[in-house]
Amino acid sequence: MNYRKPQNGKANCTASPSELATFTSDFGVTFGVMMEEDLALYNVEQLKGLKNFILTGDWQSELPLFSAAQFAPSWTYTNNVNLVSTSAIYSGKAGLKTGSGSLIVADLQKNCENEVSAVPLVVTPENFLAEDLSLYVMKQLDLQASANGYTETICHRSFCCDFYVKTAKDVKTESTYNLATFNGVRPFGANHNVATQICVLSGSQNNVNFERISITANFTKQSSQYPIVQSTAVPTEAFNFEVKNNGVTEVTFELENGKNIMNFGVFGKTAKVDLEKDYVVEKNSTDIAQSDFVEYFFNEDVQEFVDYLWIRLRVLIVVVSIYFLEMM
Questions:
Q1: Which intervals hold domain Vanin C-terminal (predicted)?
Q2: Distance (Å, rounded) from C-alpha 180 to C-alpha 198?
């Protein structure tokens, strides 16, 4: 079994450049072996129809929706596969089988034939950061109006998300939530860019009870959609995630009685696109400034000027050295 992890620090891709590595156990189950970043890079056809995967390596991401620990439940839910990692075990639409611990043991159906369906929830710490919405088109949620039911449509480029939010009557007024839409290319990790379409309700405060949240959007045909639920508590909610393909890919994600929600939405990853031709890679102002500085510094004229100064400086150093030697 060979597995090649890409080392190119300037990769722009929506699919992993390495072929999925596999092995067959002595009990007759074939496993796919993946690095954590492959969860975002592999397309459905690259999974080779496998139902069991082992996750290795370490992937740290500054993006809450795209860190491995946050994305794994959604990935296994959408693909309906078993995923074994060092931190948890997920069984398709049945969700988390075991949590963190010194020894993780779970019984799994090798074909992921689960009769129950659980929301792909991630319990986040209290200091967990909400999604960075600086690249999104967004609107702050009116929590007072949402107590009676609040409807909003938000579009980014040609992609639109329809939101419906109803909160409990005793909602705290100091809480802040935003409804946001993104359609474009976003970076993750240090090495990759991915074409995405995202609808999300994101908040920085807790102690808000949502009686109902509903998000509906039409996604690109050549895309995979992942339900995202991140909360600081384990809620007891009813949910529905439905994908309809009737000429367009219409996705609806609904949640009832959600508590302490940090991020709730649908993450769509578009496959088989030319990032340079079809999209503009989104960057924040800091990234742009850094990129402009590097480009300026390595400009040919600037490099010639730096070389000229360095030659002059070396001549000066030699002259000063000779002077001090003669004075001794």
A1: 132-271
A2: 8
